[in-house]
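Problem 3 from the worked examples.
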Amino acid sequence: MTSLRQDEPVRPTRRDEVAAAGSELIGGPIGRRALLGTYWLTPVRVVALVAIGMFALGMVQKLPCYNGGWFFGATSQYIHGCYSDIPHLYAGRGFADGLIPYFDKLPGDMQYLEYPVLTGLFMEIASWMTPHGGAIQDREQIYWLVNAGMLMVCAAVIAVCVARTHRRRPWDGLLVSLAPAFALTATINWDLLAVALTAAGMLLWSRSRPLAAGVLIGLATAAKLYPVLLLGPLLVLCWRAGTWRAYGRAVLGAVVSWLVVNLPVMLVHDGSGFHIREGWAKFYTFSQERPIDFGSIWLLISQRTGNPLENANLYASLLMILGCGGLALLTLYAPRRPRFAQLAFLVVALFILTNKVYSPQYVLWLVPLAALARPRWRDFLVWQACEVMYFLGIWMYLAYTGNGDKHQGLPPEGYQLAIALHLLGTLYLCAVVVRDILLPERDVVRRDGDDDPSGGVLDRRPDVFVLGQAHRAPQHALHFEGAPRVSWGALRD
């Protein structure tokens, strides 16, 4: 395979056999003399338009529920696979009644909104744009439409950020735009807000702006918990590269932005001092107390063995800690420093695989990370096929369990197979990413002459600390002049 010039963009139809085959639908692979980026339809704009188009198709897929499935008949929304939390929580979490999240108590057992503060603000803003008169069903439909419009903006932001993170690989953004699971799950919940902030944070890190990247990661963590995990891979990567100042600025930005969002809601003064507001803490207590639920490996084990697994929290935490330790060792032992996107994908995938619950929309967390970590259409589509099967499986299972004695849908054994497909598909993609780390010559990004396009200050930087024999770089590795490398073996000697 011929190498590319450092300034030449990577064209997937010339590098990826699946992309080349798929391009036949629009006239075949791009020619050698094709002019790219000289007209209005630049790669980034094409990626954004495709993302909006696919998002719109996902909205059309929800049409049976919009026309009554959310309101009439408990199982029709499952049979058509168009369920969404958004219309149900409009009334269920007090937005229809004008209640203020985290401050006003809700009727029933939930008491307070169980979402992080920035997501709660997103939900509240959408409720402000929803008319407060008329039938509740009409208002719920409008609330879903308003949220869908706001989430469409998030989807476009995600696709654009992915397209621009790897400067020479803008077309990799199509992996996000065309991901079927992305379109199917985009309007189930509000996860796209956190995913968009995370993608923007990774883009800024790739541009060597660690403080701004940290600010966005902190905001993303204020919308969903998982983005804070990205600080772990950055810690080990910066340790290996000796870029402690950049890491400190990222952490500072994340902490400050998270506090700015949370402190006004988090603390309450009752005359005797400041205390944690019960409404703010609901998200964290709910996550801790929540039993094993749909899609998790723990539910699969519980259903197969009959064991309720009351200690699932402990098991999940231990596996997560062990997995993070393994990723740290992998980072420090690898023959070349792993790319940031690779480790970001692996740590979030580890969290998903060990978590007590796997809601269908959680796949959104991984889609942009997978596109950056392993931009190969075959592997990406294998994983996506497994996720689509899980998407269909959970709704058919809920239709089966919610249909009384009719049992029309997928029985427990079929749903267990769907869970297994989701787990195996995610593990497969993790395996090929780990293989790329251990065998850098197999990494399609580095094969084209790049080092770590999403790494920012880490890109093409020499190592200063490695373990074992990792300092003996193979012939295919980039060679750097300057800072010396220090291995654990040398320190012991």
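Problem 4, a separate protein:
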Amino acid sequence: MPLQYINEMLGLPELQLHKIVYMDAHQVHLEASPATDKQPCPVCHSEQYVKRDGRNKLRKIRHLAVFGRKSYLHVPSLRLACSRCSVGFVWSYEFVGPKQRYSRLFRLQTVEQALGSTAAHSARMQEAPASTVQRMHQEALPAESERLTEQAWRKAKTTEGLVLGIDDFAIKKGHSYNTGIHNLRGETMLDLLPGRKLEALRTYARQHPDFLALNPKAVVMDLAQAYHTWISECFPRAIRIADRFHVHGYIIESVQAVRKSVQSTLAPRAKAILKSHHRLLNPPADLLPEQSKAQLDLLLSFSPLLRKVWEWKEAFSRWYDYSPNVHVASLGFNRWCQQGECIDHDAVRSTLKTVRNWEDEIVNYHRCRWTNATVEGRHNRIKAYQRRHYFTRNRKCYKDGILIECNRHRSSG
């Protein structure tokens, strides 16, 4: 193939290829030089008084693969001098940084692979040392995180009817947690703060005026009192919505508590069947296949109490799905609570006490129908990131990595 076509494949218009130095089944070495004769002086920015002053040894630069082989560019390290400024300098190439052995395009591709997987995987793909790829990844994190975060905040500030999602995820379950702030409309993660206690949340608000400058229409969160207190202080006019799936989790827990109490009273065969298929009680019946529906009918036939609490759970799902407005939803919520009061079980009474305490926040779902479902999916992404990177001791790198992981799919440019 003629050298000019190889030059076009490499995408380096500033270089002019001279010859193929060496090529085998795994790598190709190309000799090149600058396409121009002079370069402006870094002091006076003029080429008029610049002249070449010799050259050092060739620089060997790793570039993107060509023909399925690793490619290396051998370019001269030209010495230049400006007689006007009396300064000497070395030729600066656009495609590679000073004193670097990997081109910018190679670094960009390598970091992009590492962001989606691990440095070790990217190193295998590029046939480069893992330590080198790790260093490239760490160097690229701050700038990429800043770019994506700035983009996410700019969009949040200009979004009409902004809806925020607040939720925590575990670093070490039962010991330490982080709290994420999400733009549900923009499908981005705005920030990550350590802890989930009220004092930590208030400290964050004091230190970040950009957060207080937001004007959300609604904020979706679970039933943690700290979050509701914090949001009512920061955004008193925002609608506070109890996340549907967190609330539904309380109902399912009460169903399973009833199932366990019923299970202990059954014959061994019925007890084994109920225990092995207890998950059929959780999803809405409409989503089950026919075979599972038949199995569910068998489970419910074991106990009138179990059937009664399951029907109560199904009524709650229908209330969420079919209430047309807030007024009808409020009436339906009271009827559903009355239905639950007819069930004689401690778990049901405890759940009813909880949902009545949060009635306004639960009913507010019908004012602004948003949930934290995308946030929960993002938590799975974060947990996968933590496993891939075996956590990160450097807090800044840890935070930057998570923000990139959650926002890069929405980036432009």
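Solution to problem 4. The chain has a mean pLDDT of 90. The chain is about 50% helix and 20% strand.
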